[in-house]
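Q: Convert this sequence to structure tokens.
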Amino acid sequence: MEQLANLRAVPRLVVIRPCDANETAYAWRFAIESRDRPVALILTRQDVPTLDRSRYASAAELKRGAYILAEAANGRPEIILVATGSEVGLIVDAQRELEKQNIQTRVVSMPSWELFDAQAEEYRSSVFPPSIRTRLAVEAGATQGWHRYVGDLGEVIGLDHFGASAPASVLMREFGFTVENVCQRALALLKKPTEKVLKKGAVEKCRLE
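A:
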């Protein structure tokens, strides 16, 4: 559970966790073309869907570290779902269910924190706009470090413990890596009271519409 966090702590190491065959191909290309820093590719033993890139953004965007894989239906997202690796397919399915409930949802694939952090502020803000503070990250690993991307009002579905042994499908269900749980957590976030800090230091409580 701690291995991703350990690798991300290594100075100048670029950690890439691709979500499907398309991202893996671009990750491999980046790795063999990289001359000034080491690259670690984090792959999965699980079967993952290969996303239809005629419906979703090009996997070439992997070079930016994170990108909008699927935008909200009306272009005005209320919540951002972000994931890496095999959990990206999960949030893609969750977006579909949330949109059925008229919850406008942006899906972000984030294969590499290091590559994303190297992007210009303008680009990073286009992926995670400061105005959209309701964010949910999903990764089957330690939650350490994710809060700088989900912000003060966001949450993380992750794993901060050891000690379970079972078939992967059972573990994923028990640990909350299901479409149902992602949707429940997203809806709970949208209903959660928020705090807006005013310039004069006063705190005004409000609810997301």
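The domain at 3-207 is CATH 3.40.50.920 (Rossmann fold).
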